[in-house]
Amino acid sequence: MRGALHALGLVAAAGLLAWGLLGNSTATEKAVILPAPAFDAAAAAPPAFETAVFAGGCFWGVQAVFQHTQGVLNAVSGYSGGARETATYASIGTGRTGHAEAVEITYDPKQISYGKLLQIYFSVAHDPTQLNRQGPDTGTQYRSAIFYKDAGQKQVAERYIAQLDGARVYVGKIVTQLTPLNAFYAAEAYHQDYATRNPNAPYIRRFDAPKIVNLKTVMPELYRATPVLVSFVK
Fold first, then answer.
1. pTM for the complete prediction?
2. Which domain of life does this protein belong to (predicted)?
3. E strands, 6-60, where?
4. Catalytic residue among 22, 41, 58, 201
5. Residue 62 a catalytic site member
6. Per-residue pLDDT at 42
7. CATH label, 2-232, candidates 3.30.300.70, 3.30.1060.10, 3.30.830.10, 3.40.50.11740
8. Which residues contact residue 205 at a Cβ distance below 8 angstroms, ignoring those fewer than 6 apart?
């Protein structure tokens, strides 16, 4: 669906204007205010950096949210869940590769915890109750998934999902998959920093810009105005 919006170009933009969806982006996406994880990752001597891989619909918006998050050192759009040879934008569009559009987040655990990243992920980055879709994008490549790299991440994610389901913070049940991380493949260069480089694109204004506004509104202590961009990370 997203590819169709791109192909429509000015036609899509005109249509969005007609619907009144451009110019008030915050009205199109709502955050869910969530409690912090009751159980979180902890280490006596945290390393200099850790990584987390989340999938939640189009990777443009998920990447942008975490690029505006304090403590994040880098956030890269890419693919996870399938084989190396199908880790391309053209291939994953079929929905049959096993891949999900995902974001690999490198963060400083002394500044932000894995559990806090999950709180952002579930609150403002996507809707975890939508099965194999987010907004206008449909297919398994847009599924909600946490690719955990070890037992510690899995435990934090499992307990937080149980906590949120138990608190009934959503109308529907969380459908986020918990999947062991086998590999993450960075997406093509033109997908990186997409929301920052294309702030006036109709898709970004309609579906992704509101997420950044929501991060600033709901969790201002975790928001930073200047995003950390892939193009600036060595």
1. 0.88
2. Bacteria
3. 50-56
4. 58
5. no
6. 72
7. 3.30.1060.10
8. 16, 21, 22, 25, 199
